[in-house]
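Q: What would this chain look like folded?
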Amino acid sequence: MGLDEASIQQRLEDREPFTADELFSLESAGFDPEELHRRLHGESCFSPSELQTLALIGMSEEDIVRRLLAGEEFSDEELKWLQKGGFTLAKLIRRVFGTSNPTKEDGDLSRSFWLGPEDEMPERLTNQNMAMALQRLMSDIGLLSDEEHYMLESCGLSMEEMQRRLALGDGFTEEELERLESAGLSASLQRLASTETISDSERQVLESCGLPVEEIHRRIMTGEDFTEDEVNRKNSTEMKPEPLQFDPLITKNQMDVWDGVDVLDLDKKCSEPLFQVFMTIWYSQKMSLLVKAKTEKVQEYVRAVEAGYHRQNPYHNNSHAAEVTLMTYQIWTYLSAGSFKGYFEQVDLLVVLLAAAIHDIGHPATNNDFLVKTKAELALRYHDTAVLENFHLATAFQLMRSRSISMLDHNLPSPPVTSLRRRIVEIVLATDMAVHKKQVDDMARSVERHTNRQEIDKRMLEQYIVHTADVGHPFRPVPQHQEWARRVNEEFLQQGDREKELGFTPIEMFDREKAPPLPKNQLGFLQFVIQPLWKPMEALLDTKSRPASLFLQRNIKVWQDEPTENPPSDG
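A: My prediction, written as structure tokens:
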């Protein structure tokens, strides 16, 4: 990181600010500088996210501290809102008085404020039902929400510690059980302890019958039976997830880190970067449980799509398709983990992934203006409107038909395939730079209007995700961005050369003899195209936007430091 423990401690004590690079390094290593400041100086009893939650429910830290110190009670309505925000009375007491290990009285106190009917008050946890709950939890971590996992960690019982206890048969102390009670976890763990376990093989079959994981979890939790139709589908289907059928060069963990995969480097290691990215996502997200097509047919289609890209193109080639697919996946998953949690479904990921993978298939390394100007066959076919975008879509769907591979047939009751196809068409058409300004303006208005992010139109958002990824190389580390910029600039100049050969006059940026230096071109592109595009997405991603935002600022600074005038020619 360039910072050792002593220097970080000294910087915090002196309240000296960190540079942008240092902040990025700290955040990449899992440290929140604000949280470090808070802990060192004792400036707050609550974390920044907890303070934000308190503000949303109309309370402040000062008010809570004052009332607890004075022994004032909270009304039933206030307790209800606090509980909705994840705060039990015991948790507030621990935060204010610094008691990390609540006493038995704390646990009893939190139970006395149970808001539900008295006969539905959760039973007290015992070692036996804790063990039963853990056995189910270890087989499927997703059975508890992220918030519940965080609460377990806050009680000092990490998943690793629980696994150790379960493996050794160790019990839990009375204090630990009380701690779990007072944190409001008793209901969650009791629910797991009282529900029968479903095997992995049964789960896979049910998912392949069109029952999403979330629905299966709900049925398991509530004990609700499956319908006769669902049972018949389960008994008749033979579809199961396919084993891994390729040698992955990247991992999900790498893809989940913003700069964890360098597609340019991946391209040097193999001839199929798009296939590597797409199939790694496919397996990690268990897409075979959603899509009816067999995995070998999916692989056949993805390889055919990649072969449809012209590798000799400087920029619009299969590496670009891989990069756009990767960034689309990253933005989609980052949004899904933030304010859009529960907003997207797996079928939505299928739509954006396919759209990103096919969005430039068959690109001729010239733009729409060139095709219209030269009266190319494609321009005549598509009436001079979104010529390339229409061509890419037609090529991709023709590939599906010619190979009898339906990538959109799925196991869910809805949405219909025609709806998914229409969404892919809209996404690819929205990659046309002719509609860029309208997209940015529309999204900026929508972000400003909807403080509840989940009210934003999904179709508009998924179009914006792929469009951002399509021009997103300025959000990558400096060496990657500069190489992508060099490639796209060379493709522009090659088009200019062709225009001259045909007797046309290319625009200045495409003319080798008149084009301004690359730094000047890129500065204009980043400042007047990319920054306005990124502003709404940055707001939607919130803290998840930091790595991309920092890379964008670094890239701007690097271009600013480069000479922006062509050197004088001899003579």
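The chain is about 60% helix and 0% strand.
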